[in-house]
Amino acid sequence: MPSDHEGNKLSNKTGNPIGPYAESDDRGVHIRALFTELLRARKPLVLHNGLIDMAFLYQSFYAHLPDRLTTFTADLSEMFPAGIYDTKYVTEFELRLTASYLKYAYKKCKLDSSRRGTSGGTEPHVQLHFCQYAGQMSSYVDYRVCPAVGSVEGQTDVCQRFSAFGWCPNGSECLLSHDTDLIILHDEKDLGNKRTKRKRRKVER
Questions:
Q1: I want to staple 170 with a disulfide (CB 3.0 to 4.6 A). Which of 2, 32, 96, 174 is the partner?
Q2: Distance (Å, rounded) from C-alpha 182 to C-alpha 178?
Q3: What is the pTM of this model?
Q4: How far is CA 104 from CA 22, 90, 98, 180, in A?
Q5: Tell me, what's the pLDDT at 10?
Q6: Quick one: average pLDDT of 64-88?
Q7: What would the mean pLDDT of 125-142 be, rounded to a whole number?
């Protein structure tokens, strides 16, 4: 397994430093240290659309990418025995959300969970608590507040491209809304309308 012992140079299975960050540059030291901590923790690894990320980490800090996918996945299972979870896969194939980009998935799941928690029922839900990082660590952590989804006032025309994919070629110059909260509320309204139409059709039959 990789190690950063004796000079902070991460090695592959043969003990030789590999990858584009094998030399002791400042950027490489920080990334190698992070990767080594991930391996040492032996905790579940959660990613979003993380196949390319895992291939990059493997190639840079573990070994050259193998020719066979089975070898790659077997090595990942050895490196992260607690499992690797991809939230994009979950949102697309398990939850079947309307969109699967990270901000949409996070805010939609958070909204659903908060509704279950305040409904007074026994449905499972989660509460999120963010770590209070020390001053030294705060410069490495990009913390962005995601407030609860609420009613959105003002602009109501949603950019369909951003709604579906989480990006828009027009960027900040787009005249339509890129507000994720508004997009979620629109999607829920559309889904509710579709369900109502289905019920009417069943009654008419």
A1: 174
A2: 8
A3: 0.69
A4: 37, 13, 9, 6
A5: 41
A6: 95
A7: 72
